[in-house]
């Protein structure tokens, strides 16, 4: 067959294979952006694109560490859904892998092979950073580029997490940064939270896809034998592949020439938007760029444990017959849809992994001549249109931010909570307390609870009240939030945790066990052992045994 050639976005768009009703439309394309690997959105909905412009320009990775990459910023100034103002926020970078928005014009940035996490600021509002300050030393690693932190999240608990690093950071009221250890999370590229604050990670190198999926990582890296339905790790790309697999013919489905097992899972997201079908909410999405697919997984809960199942048996959510389609990350967007980042390049593996077999494929198809392209796609459904409301959270009052906690979109709720915590406006504490107690919106109650925790205004009375709430999801979040008070010295919660361990809902029991174990509550081991031995619920037994194992 002839060498692979670049297609223009309109031609590539016609090659997407999606379920009925779904379409992918271009948001940003080359040459405006090149080699995109991920996006993030700040409180005003401006999109930052990580552009790894030196990535794999040939099979040897020549010039990969040259400082020619950047973080670009894109803004929709008139609310028509099109990004029309473009600036280069940070230039002359080495393969940037984190661009995490904080306050207006402020990003946390990590470059490849840089041990330090920096804060970049735009102090004059022109969309270009003009100040660089050390935020946290020793955050990065100097090793193969696939084995370094890639992606950052601020979930419900107001801590900052990333892949690889076995710890979390927190910005205190005085601006200082504290650290707490966690288990290694096993993630490689990107991480995501669900509506209840559990982080999800994927590991392409381990060829498993999602990893450590049974509990929030702060309680431990937990897995069970049936994390996945049978053959979950088998991808189903569109036929007609070019068999350019790092693993050689052992990883090729014959005769289709496509990937037969996950090898590069990346870019995880849990859909939490409001402009795609409701049955997608809570589903897990991740990419397999070697297989040229996007997997949609259903998260099925049974007896306190979860199992992932392919939503499209023997098929995928997104496939393409374009060999240069390289989906690397997928993100909830302010408009309620999903944004898919397509590196659109020839060689997807790092040079270290371009062995003799793959090198022959690179030469055969001219893959080393296809680079410095890239696209961001918006995933839409015919049943609804994107929400073009422009976020203005950097201008919103604290009272308005509180109302955003009731929004149907997880992106809006998360961003409003983060902004409230960063601005430290405690005048909204009474409104948050009322929302946590009386709102009919479950997720708003949860965000109100955690916003109070982030502002240092959560008290034991409210925590205990919610630990007895009729909704077990609220009880679980109250237990988790009360841990801050316990760590601060309120040991009276020991009795509450022991009471929760006798709850009628097994998920609450599991949370109580994890909380007691994490904080070494007196007689925690004995309590957990007794629960695991006596419970008829598999999740209580298995999580209990995992907590007690060395």
* pLDDT < 50 stretches: none
How many helical stretches? 12
Structural class: alpha+beta
Measured on Cα atoms, how large is the radius of gyration?
23 Å
Q: What features would you describe in this structure?
A:
By secondary structure, this protein is of the alpha+beta class. The protein is built from 12 helices and 27 strands. Strands 1, 20, 21, 22, 23 and 24 form a 6-stranded antiparallel beta sheet that branches.
Features of this protein?
single chain, 550 residues, six-stranded antiparallel beta sheet, 23% helix
Give the helices and strands, then pairings.
Blueprint: H1 9-13, E1 16-17, E2 22-29, E3 36-41, E4 47-51, E5 69-75, E6 85-93, E7 96-101, E8 106-111, E9 117-121, E10 131-136, E11 152-153, E12 161-162, E13 167-171, E14 177-181, E15 191-193, E16 199-203, E17 209-211, E18 252-253, E19 258-259, E20 266-270, E21 284-288, E22 293-302, E23 305-310, E24 318-320, E25 327-332, E26 338-342, H2 356-365, E27 375-381, H3 398-404, H4 410-423, H5 429-438, H6 442-455, H7 460-467, H8 472-487, H9 493-500, H10 506-518, H11 524-534, H12 538-548
Antiparallel strand pairs: 1-24, 2-27, 3-4, 4-5, 5-6, 7-8, 8-9, 9-10, 11-12, 13-14, 15-16, 16-17, 18-19, 20-21, 21-22, 22-23, 22-24, 25-26, 26-27
Task: Summarize the structure in short.
With 550 residues, the chain is of the alpha+beta class.
């Amino acid at each position: 067959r002839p060498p692979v050639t670049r297609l223009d976005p309109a031609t590539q768009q016609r090659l997407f294979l999606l379920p009925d009703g779904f379409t992918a439309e271009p948001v940003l394309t080359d040459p405006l952006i090149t080699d995109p690997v991920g996006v993030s959105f700040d409180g005003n909905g401006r999109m930052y694109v990580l552009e790894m412009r030196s990535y794999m320009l040939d099979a040897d990775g020549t010039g990969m560490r040259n400082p020619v990459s950047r973080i670009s910023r894109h803004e929709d100034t008139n609310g028509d859904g099109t990004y029309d103002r473009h600036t280069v926020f940070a230039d002359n970078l080495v393969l940037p892998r984190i661009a995490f928005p904080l306050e207006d014009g402020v990003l946390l940035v990590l470059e490849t092979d840089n041990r330090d996490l920096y804060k970049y600021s735009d102090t004059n509002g022109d969309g270009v950073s003009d100040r660089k300050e050390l935020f946290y030393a020793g955050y990065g690693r100097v090793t193969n580029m696939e084995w370094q932190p890639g992606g950052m999240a601020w979930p419900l608990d107001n801590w900052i997490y990333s892949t690889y690093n076995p710890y979390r950071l927190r910005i205190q009221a005085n601006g200082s940064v504290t650290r707490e250890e966690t288990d290694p999370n096993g993630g490689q590229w990107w991480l995501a939270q669900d509506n209840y604050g559990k982080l999800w990670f994927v590991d392409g190198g381990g060829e498993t896809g999602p990893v450590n999926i049974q509990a929030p990582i702060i309680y431990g890296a937990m897995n069970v034998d049936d994390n996945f339905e049978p053959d979950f790790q088998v991808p189903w790309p569109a036929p007609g592949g070019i068999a350019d697999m790092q693993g050689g013919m052992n990883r090729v489905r014959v005769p289709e020439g496509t990937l037969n097992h996950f090898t590069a899972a990346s870019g995880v997201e849990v859909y939490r938007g409001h402009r795609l079908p409701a049955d997608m909410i809570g589903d897990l999405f991740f990419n397999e760029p070697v297989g040229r697919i996007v997997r949609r997984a259903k998260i099925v809960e049974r007896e306190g444990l979860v199992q992932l199942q392919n939503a499209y048996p023997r098929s995928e959510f997104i496939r393409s017959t374009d060999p240069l389609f390289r989906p690397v990350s997928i993100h909830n967007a302010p408009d309620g849809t999903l944004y898919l980042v397509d590196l659109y390049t020839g060689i997807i593996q790092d040079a270290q992994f371009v062995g003799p077999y793959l090198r022959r494929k690179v030469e055969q198809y001219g893959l080393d001549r296809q680079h410095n392209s890239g696209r961001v796609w918006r995933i839409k459904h015919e049943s609804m249109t994107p929400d073009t409301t422009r976020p203005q959270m950097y201008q919103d009052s604290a009272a308005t931010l509180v109302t955003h906690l009731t929004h149907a979109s997880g992106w809006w709720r998360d961003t409003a909570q983060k902004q409230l915590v960063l601005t430290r406006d405690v005048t909204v504490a009474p409104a948050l307390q009322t929302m946590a107690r009386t709102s009919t919106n479950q997720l708003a109650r949860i965000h109100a609870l955690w916003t109070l925790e982030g502002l240092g205004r959560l008290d034991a009375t409210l925590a205990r009240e919610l630990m007895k709430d009729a909704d077990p999801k609220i009880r679980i979040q109250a237990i988790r939030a009360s841990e801050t008070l316990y760590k601060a010295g309120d040991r009276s919660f020991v009795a509450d945790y022991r009471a929760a361990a006798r709850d009628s809902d097994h998920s609450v029991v599991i949370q109580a066990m994890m909380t007691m174990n994490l904080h070494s509550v007196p007689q925690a081991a004995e309590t957990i052992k007794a629960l695991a031995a006596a419970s008829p619920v598999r999740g209580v037994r298995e999580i209990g045994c995992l907590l007690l194992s060395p």
